[in-house]
Q: What sequence folds into this?
């Protein structure tokens, strides 16, 4: 939940309630705000670019606090679907408050942009982290360290009836302690009740669950479990299980559940068993989050308490 402290910290009025329109908002004096970030924020380094947004580090010059400002050009969200997606992202993300979820502080807009103020995650995402590794993969204890946090985040989200629907390495942000925080709720869905099924086709090709592609019976929380399995495989093996050079073939492989464990990478039998158990076509036969935690992979090895500091300093080069 967005605290009243965080809202008043910005001192900027923002759309209330249902977010039905994202239109120019007026400040407290009733005049329309001039273009750009309010003067008290100093724009810092560029953090990254996504499909819609550009993200910068910004500092509140009064409190000295640092935030990540996700800036979306309104010109890029003129289509009703894109507009609805942005509204939904704000509405779902602002309702969340958990240590393993990127914190949402506030949002506001001017005539040209929507600004989403987020907790800054200074060590990029697990995608960049893995790419910097010489073998482009993680050891099993490292994978377990990150997957454990992801499970904690998913337990929170699913208990709040939120399905993320776009879990992938690039949406697992790294904080200053190299712990993950789940971010980017652009494709998330808020269910009204647990039995509800969603039907929109969404996700990222390599990580998308077969029932989303099938589209017949709708989908629910199990799509996040599937993506967790794809993430675990990718961490240990170094590339996603269904990856091919074209999306159509990737989708076909997902539908027929065609993937293998290459002989060239060492992987424990427990990890193989867990991945095979998660990547089941029938969503009802996938394990729950608690069953994953109780799996022999988690139970036979000791969970590493924290990523050694040397991992972050050696692997994340300053920009
Ligand atoms: P989009 O919704 O357009 O896909 P993203 O949410 O993926 O945008 O953000 C784009 C990029 O900005 C990310 O890939 C990442 O590099 C950076 N970014 C986003 N949020 C944060 C954050 N909270 N802290 C640090 N960097 C971030």
A:
């Amino acid at each position: 939940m967005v605290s009243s402290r965080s809202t008043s910290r910005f001192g900027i009025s923002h759309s209330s309630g249902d977010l039905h329109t994202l239109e120019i908002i007026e400040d407290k004096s009733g005049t329309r705000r001039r273009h750009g970030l309010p003067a008290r924020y100093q724009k810092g380094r560029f953090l990254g670019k996504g499909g819609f947004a550009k993200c910068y580090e910004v500092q509140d010059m009064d409190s000295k606090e640092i935030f990540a400002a996700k800036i979306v050009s309104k010109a890029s969200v003129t289509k009703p679907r894109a507009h609805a997606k942005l509204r939904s992202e704000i509405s779902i993300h602002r309702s969340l408050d958990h240590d393993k979820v990127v914190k949402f502080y506030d949002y506001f807009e001017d005539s040209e942009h929507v600004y989403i103020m987020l907790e800054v995650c200074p060590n990029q995402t697990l995608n960049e982290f893995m790419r910097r590794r010489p073998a482009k993969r993680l050891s099993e204890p490292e994978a377990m360290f990150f997957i454990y946090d992801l499970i904690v985040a998913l337990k929170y989200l699913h208990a709040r009836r939120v399905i993320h629907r776009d879990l992938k390495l690039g949406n697992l942000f790294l904080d200053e302690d190299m712990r993950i925080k789940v971010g980017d709720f652009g494709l998330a869905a808020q269910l009204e009740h647990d039995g509800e099924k969603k039907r929109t086709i969404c996700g990222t090709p390599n990580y998308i669950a077969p029932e989303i592609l099938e589209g017949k019976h709708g989908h629910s929380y199990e799509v996040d479990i599937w993506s967790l399995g794809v993430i675990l495989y990718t961490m240990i093996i170094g590339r996603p299980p269904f990856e091919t050079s074209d999306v159509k073939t990737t989708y076909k492989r997902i539908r027929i559940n065609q993937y293998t464990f290459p002989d060239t990478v060492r992987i424990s039998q427990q990890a193989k068993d867990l991945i095979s158990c998660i990547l089941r076509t029938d969503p009802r036969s996938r394990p729950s989050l608690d069953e994953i935690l109780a799996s022999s992979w988690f139970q036979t090895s000791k969970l590493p308490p924290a990523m050694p500091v040397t991992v972050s300093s050696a692997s994340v080069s300053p920009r």
